[in-house]
Amino acid sequence: MDPAAVLTEAGSVNERLTAGGDLWLRPWAPDDLDAVLCAFTDPEMWRQSEEPVDTVPAAAAWIAARQRHWATGTGYSWAVLDARSVVLGCVEVGAVNRRHGCGWVSYWTTKAARGRGVATAACRTASDWALYDLGLHRLELGHRLNNPASCQVATRAGYRPEGVQRDKLRYDGRWYDVEIHARLVTDRGFAAAS
């Protein structure tokens, strides 16, 4: 697919993606306010968010920001849902740079969805879409070194570790090293084997 087609038709091209099993992805919508608020009540989520998402206006602003990114082609964020349309998490291809053909992938799951393969399936699906449909060449993601679950998500979704950024993130007054992973469009065979 021509990447320009995705940009000009954002809102209708590949918005809903099947992530295998009973999981699917769709862009965030205003009706997701309660799900976003609930997800961000988890102390781990609250601690890592750039801004508190603890009120209805804050959740609405969080959703609106993702919708703006989609509309401008600078980021693509999906709610991850099960067959009953229950929100289990989020996956995003953000910081999209068309000139260099790259983007930054992030993901989170609700506390109840952790350990069930939800993040891996969502990350793999969104990454495949960004590389093979959107036409990006390189995707990156990072995780704290003390988060082995996120490292497993990355490697199972076809991302290869590339190095460590020292003191990259700061939470609760403490600095954390971050391991960077990347997946290239040419890594297709690696991802399929994972």
From TrEMBL:
Residues 23-181 form the N-acetyltransferase domain. GO terms for molecular function: protein N-terminal-serine acetyltransferase activity; protein-N-terminal-alanine acetyltransferase activity. Gene3D superfamilies: 3.40.630.30. Keywords: Transferase. One of its GO terms (cellular component) is cytoplasm. It comes from the Bacteria. This is Protein N-acetyltransferase, RimJ/RimL family.
